[in-house]
Amino acid sequence: MKIGQVSKKTDLPVQTIRYYESQDLIKSAGRTEGNFRVYDNKVIDQLEFIKHCRHLDLSLSDIKRINELRDNPDAICEEVDILINDQIKLVKIKMKELRKLKTQLETLSNSCSENQKVGDCGIIKSLQKCDCD
């Protein structure tokens, strides 16, 4: 099937599919006489796997490594465990950063009184002198 058909089946933009191919995450099955890339059903499965991994916020390099390991089913899965545990650590850091961001935004929101003019807006005044570190 052509890339447009793959795009429709996976709900991924054509550019994304081409990018994944350029990153060696997927491979086309070859080219037609008209020089169009063609893909088989295996690519659909690979793209669905990549989408799932991306929803877990895994990096493309981690996905590539997991794909390599998937192609070697007799390998020990310790490396996959390590990749996922590293991702859990990153998520915890992001959660901490998001809590801090939420607190900062709530503080800004509380600095505003209703029915004021923009010139008197507490949020704008706070942003002008914000120490956001």
Apparent shape: elongated
Assign the CATH topology of the largest domain: Multidrug-efflux Transporter Regulator, Chain: A, Domain 2
The ordered string of helix (H) and strand (E) elements is HHEEHHHH
Largest beta-sheet characterization: 2 strands, antiparallel
User: In what range is the share of β-strand residues?
Assistant: under 5%
Tell me the count of domains: 2
Sheet with the most strands: spatial strand order? 1-2
| Count of helical regions | 6
Query: Could you say which structural class the secondary elements and strand pairing correspond to?
Result: mainly alpha
Number of strands: 2
Highlighted features:
Multidrug-efflux Transporter Regulator, Chain: A, Domain 2, 133 residues, 6 helices, elongated, mainly alpha
Question: Secondary-structure blueprint of this entry?
Answer:
Elements (H helix, E strand, L loop, with lengths): L2 H8 L3 H9 L7 E2 L5 E2 L2 H15 L4 H11 L7 H33 L11 H7 L5
Antiparallel strand pairs: 1-2
